[in-house]
Amino acid sequence: MRTAFAFAAFLVTLAAPAAEDARSRVFVVGSLYQGHESVAAYDLASLQRVLDAIRPDVLVLDVSPTELKQQKVWPGKVEYTKVIFPYMNKRGLTAYAGEPDEPLFSRISGGVGKARKQMALDHPSRAQAMEQYRKATYAALKVYWQGPAEVHDDDTEQMIAGLKSYEAALVGPVERQGSHDWDAYAAAMTRKAVRAHPGKRVLQITGIENLPRVRAELRQADDIELVDMAAWLRAHDVREIRADE
Q1: What is the C-alpha R_g of the chain?
Q2: Order of strands across the sheet with 94-97?
Q3: Distance of alpha carbon 84 from alpha carbon 108, whole angstroms
Q4: Contact between 4 and 178 (Cβ < 8 Å)
Q5: Which residues of the chain fall below pLDDT 70?
Q6: Helix/strand/coil (H, E, C) string of 95-146?
């Protein structure tokens, strides 16, 4: 309980109100990790065009402080080495790490990992059902996605939220709390970036499964104008924007 209170106090510190009245436009973009290599509607070239269309002033990335400093990430995050870090470096953008550093990183992710392993040992049928539901969800999304706009619309958000809710119901409260804490931290870092750069265009990139909760957290912020990404992407046809423009 003491740890939970300490974490909550930490988030309040990060998300303190901005000192100025200027509202920052925040764009929250979901990434697919290695999925970008198999989802034609939202491949790495599409992600590159999305970045070029937004033209952010500040980035909040789905990486830890160490990963951001070294620009070395888990191998599955292909979009970082192939698109995001080169984009950031070319434009000299300020970037914030949306994932916590140690020991908080391991305390959250490690707890969830242990809970999932224990669930698989105690209830193998649940683990099998969870994996089947996950595969079916992404198979359905892959058919539904026709471009970046669909990846970011309400229907996708509801499907992802349903998947995460189902997994939390099977794994238990550690999964639910860990997911909440992880996404709350990411949103708090965006609030921190907004405070430091009032009125600037802030782009947060987060995993597609974190998108619903991160958006929900940021919608509560009075100092943020959260962009409706599906509508914005449809209005700015990213298929017509090339990376070298």
Answers
A1: 18
A2: 94-97, 58-61, 202-207, 24-31, 224-226
A3: 25
A4: no
A5: 1-22, 239-245
A6: EEECCCCCCHHHHHHHHHHHHHHHHHHHCHHHHHHHHHHHHHHHHHHHHHCC
Give the integer Cα–Cα distance in Å for 56 and 40.
Answer: 24
The Cα 162–Cα 160 span in angstroms is 5
pTM (predicted TM-score):
0.86
What pLDDT score was predicted for residue 8? Answer: 53
- What is the sign, positive or negative, of the torsion defined by CA atoms of 125, 131, 137, 140? negative
Q: What count of other Cβ atoms lies within 10 Å of the Cβ of residue 10? A: 15
Residue type, 48: Q
33-51 in b/e form (b: 16+ CB < 10 A) is bebbeebebbbbbbbbbbb
Residue closest to 99 by CA, chosen among 245, 205, 195: 205
Enumerate the β-bridge partners of residue 27. Answer: 203
Which residues in 100-132 are b (16+ Cβ under 10 Å) and which e?
beeebbeebeeebeebbeebbeeeeeebeebee
Amino acid identity, residue 4? A
